[in-house]
Amino acid sequence: MDSGARLSPQPSASEVSSVSRPDETALCCLLPPPAWNISLPAATRRFPEACQSGGAWIPVPSARGPQWGAAPAPRAAGPAPEADVSPQPPQQLFGPEGRPVPCDWGGLLDERRLVAHLKLALGREARLWRGGQPQVEICDAFQEVVLQLLRLKNIFHFSQSTFNLALTIFSRLLVSVKVKERLLQCVTITSLRLAVKVNEEEELIPRIKDFIKHYGSGYTPNELLRMELAILDKLHWDLYIGTPLDFLTIFHALVVLGWPHVVELLPQRNPSLHVASLTRQLQHCMAGHQLLQFKGSTLALVIITLELERLMPDWCTPISDLLKKAQISIEQLSRCMDLVKQQLRSF
């Protein structure tokens, strides 16, 4: 996958990038130097395609989190107008006792490998997470643009983790820099395009003109490419943070492996469908600006906690185990839970 960009001649580093109008600045931040003189992270410089056209490209992540079922079948690169953004459960894999079990790209998972996935995600989160809230004047607009993103028709068959990464990129940016309300839509769509470049296979990434046709008809290719560079510059070209969906999937798998009887309590006894349902709750909560003060791991554990409270009387035991593994305090969990309950009232 490409990991750099070659753009048309750009202003010097001292000039400000324009996005939606010639007189509007992109996040009030400077454009990086032209692509042929840009200083990229070492992981990015290793890719010889870094100077090809098509915008800013990110290396493929080296690790993938667990999922319920086998690796998904290849998706068609072209649009399918009737597709939607709802999570699609993968085909189930079953253990020796006939119960569905979690797997990753290396096969079936046991608790040791799940904990390894969790530690990897926690490490990425600790390195990149920055809590806070967006500026007061865009709080209401924040929820609206996030919900608009979640309502988009998934015509290119992007994975649910791609949409969750887009929300994470968008949220990280808003707690890092001030963004004018008129730029929020452009930032949201650009965050989705960056997430696609991180998560999706290269042959499934739509051309920028096709992407704009369906998701950003109010913008030109050059405006989106310049916004990509502005976002990457503010996030230090490092987008691969552990997302709330990563943690939700890991926590759910740990509960099912450690307490197998919970499968009997799930809708249709299907962990994959259950994760899909919890994912919708999680992403609705990510539209609440007050929850940006909490890490994605905390938010995901709250969603799991509320669900286990509803499903099983002995929910305290698995939650205590997850709190210890994720190194989350009960005080953090309690504060986050109060706000999640408020947010879910509108779900």
UniProtKB/TrEMBL annotation:
Gene3D superfamilies, alphabetized: Cyclin-like
PANTHER family attached to this UniProt entry: CYCLINS
Protein name: Cyclin-G1
Function field: May play a role in growth regulation. Is associated with G2/M phase arrest in response to DNA damage. May be an intermediate by which p53 mediates its role as an inhibitor of cellular proliferation.
SMART domains: CYCLIN
Biased composition (Polar residues): 9-20
Record bears the keyword Signal: no
Family note: Belongs to the cyclin family.
Annotated Low complexity bias: 63-83
Chain intervals for the UniProt region annotation (Disordered): 1-22, 62-94
Domain Cyclin-like positions: 147-233
InterPro entries in UniProt: Cyclin, Cyclin-like_dom, Cyclin-like_sf, Cyclin_N
Pfam families assigned to the protein according to its UniProt record, in alphabetical order: Cyclin_N
Keywords linked to the UniProt accession: Cyclin
